[in-house]
Amino acid sequence: MEISVLNKKGEDTGRKVTLNETIFSIEPNDHAIYLDVKQYLANQRQGTAKAKERSELSGSTRKLGRQKGGGGARRGDINSPVLVGGARVFGPKPRDYSFKLNKKVKLLARKSALTYKAQEEAIVVVEDFTFEAPKTKEFISLTENLKVAGKKLLLVLPSMDKNIYLSARNLQATTLITASKLNTYSVMDAGVMVLTESALAQVNEVLTK
């Protein structure tokens, strides 16, 4: 599959790049995508939720009422979970939500996500560019020239460019990422991907190892 390379003004440069078939034209594996996205989201969780259990609450341990005959549930001290203000039974504790995923599954997931984007014709390749100074207005003009304005945009760069990053960070629907850190979640979450020529070369290098 060939894609025309555009410049910052959205004009065709006359050059074309060929998307690697082993990356952008495989048989997509939905389950691999599910596992990789699940792991990515799990890794974002802090896991610091905590509720006090019965032994952790301060309060008298005196038994408040008789064991039977009260017309309600049995209860002991003031910390009983059946009382308002009492402890919580099996409440959340700090934990690590991350889990292991094989490298080959993660690689298959990224290739599957990129294949879906290629099938949707949601990939734009632009020649390498930079901004002389951080200007959000200039970045918005770029998206309009590339006809991706108003879409959830994922811009893939060969390395993080400070001026481009500062120009785009206030735009909610725009995400910047380097080719080496490209992940399945970011690809699937984006409505359209814009890659620079150097970034595309890096993606090919990383995903064909």
Summarize the helix and strand pattern as letters.
EEHHHEHEHEHEH
Quote the beta fraction: 5-15%
Average pLDDT, all residues = 92
Largest sheet: 6 strands, mixed
Q: How many helix segments?
A: 7
Highest-level CATH class of the largest domain: Alpha Beta
* CATH superfamily caption of the largest domain: Ribosomal protein L4/L1
Describe this structure in words.
This protein has 209 residues and is an alpha/beta fold. It folds into 2 domains: 2-28 and 101-207, 3-Layer(aba) Sandwich (Ribosomal Protein L4, Chain: A), CATH 3.40.1370.10; 46-96, no CATH class. 33% of the residues lie in helices and 15% in strands. The protein contains 7 helices and 6 strands; from the N terminus they run E-E-H-H-H-E-H-E-H-E-H-E-H. It has helices at 21-24, 30-44, 103-119, 136-145, 162-168, 184-189, 197-207, and strands at 2-6, 12-18, 123-126, 153-157, 174-178, 192-196. It has a 6-stranded mixed β-sheet with strand order 2-1-3-6-4-5. Helix 2 (30-44) crosses helix 3 (103-119) and helix 4 packs across helix 5. The chain is elongated. The protein starts with a strand and ends with a helix.
